[in-house]
Amino acid sequence: MLVKRRPPAAVAEVLRALHQTTADPWPWLRSLDAGNDLVARLYDDTWPRLAARTDLSAEVRDLGERLQGQVVAVEQQLVDAGPLTLIHGDASAQNIRTSTDGAVALLDWEDVSAAPGVLDLAWFLVSSVEPTRWAEALDAYGPAAGLRVAMPSTVVQGLLSMADWPEGSPEALGWNERLAVARSML
């Protein structure tokens, strides 16, 4: 998938095109509930260490606390986020390249699955887009009715990703900022 423009709007357009042109699930793709138990255990094991961090804002800490013990239920709610489509599964800046003429390519398709398309959009926002540019990406993607339903699952992944960065690091502070905006969308 290639679209000419600059991210984040260009990436949102690529994701929209992917999700609109692949509206039928394929039985050989990883199912929507694959790995839910594993992610839930990982989150519950990681949360106490995260909760003790000083770089976690009160609003993100509150949401993280509410997600403890609820990850499987949050993941099961994804069926209400929209129709199943082909998704990239890890639409983050590290998996996106832009050519000198503005063409955008999605790389690293190892997490491809059948899921609601807004899951890709939510992960792109939380993992890679400055909150001041979220509206730009949302406008470029178009209607994203299930985004609110997809966001808790994305917050779980975001908190797990934040745990990989040293406390107080610019990367961790960026995660916290984006997670706070995600929380405001719930």
UniProtKB/TrEMBL annotation:
One of its GO terms (molecular function) is kinase activity. This is Phosphotransferase. Keywords: Kinase, Transferase. It comes from Kribbella sandramycini. Pfam families: APH. InterPro entries: Aminoglycoside_PTrfase (IPR002575), Kinase-like_dom_sf (IPR011009). Residues 10-145 form the Aminoglycoside phosphotransferase domain.
